[in-house]
Amino acid sequence: MRLFSIVLITLFAVMLGFANAAYTAEGIKVGSIDAQRVLNESKKANESAKSVEDFAKGKEKLLENDKKELEKLDEEYQKQLSILSPEARKQKEEQIKKKFEEFQKKRASLSDEVRKKNAEVSKTFGEKIETIVKNIGKKEGFTLIVEKRGLMYSPDDFYPLDLTDRIIKEIDLQK
C-alpha cells in the first residue's frame, strides 16, 4: 500500500512537470513585496496605527478617574488604619478590594476593545494591500507575488521585481 502511494505521488509529480509548457522558467513572472516595510513606511499605515493608539489613549483616560478614586480610598485607609476598629478595617479592606476588582474588570474590558480595534484596523489594511497586490498582479501578468520575508532564497537580480515601493504609493493614494 505504501509503495503504491509513493508510485502515485511520483506519477502525479511527473505529469504536473510536463502538463503545461506555459509554466517553464521563461513563462513565470514573479514579484515580491516587503509587507513589514509597507507597514513601516506607508503614511496610511502610520495613520491607522495612530488611530489605534489614540483609541487606546482615550480608553486609558476612562480609567484615570477610577484609578485616582482607588488611590484616594487606599490613602484614606492608610491614614485611618491605626484608629479603625477591626470590623471597620475589614469593611474598608473589602470596599477597596471590590473597587480594585471593578477596576481590573474595566481595564480588561477596555484592553479587549483596543485589541479588537487593532485587529479590525489590521484586517482592513491587510485587505487593502491584498487588493492592490492582486490588481498589480493581474494588470501586469505576474504569475506569483510573494511576501519577501517568506523567501528562503532569491538571486540578487530578483529584487528589481520588488513591488514594495509601488504598494506603498498606491496605498497612500487611497482615501
Put the structure in a nutshell.
With 175 residues, this protein is mainly alpha-helical. 73% of the residues lie in helices and 5% in strands. The longest helix is centred in the middle third of the chain and has 55 residues.
Overall description:
It is a single chain. Mean pLDDT is 80; it is low at 2-24. The protein starts with a helix and ends with a helix. Strands 1-2 form a two-stranded parallel ribbon. Helix 2 (35-41) packs across helix 5 (164-173) and helix 3 (43-80) runs antiparallel to helix 4 (86-140). It has helices spanning 2-19, 35-41, 43-80, 86-140, 164-173, and strands spanning 30-33, 144-147. It is mainly α and 175 residues long. 73% of the residues lie in helices and 5% in strands. The longest helix has 55 residues, at 86-140. The radius of gyration is 29 Å and the shape is rod-shaped. The protein contains five helices and two strands.
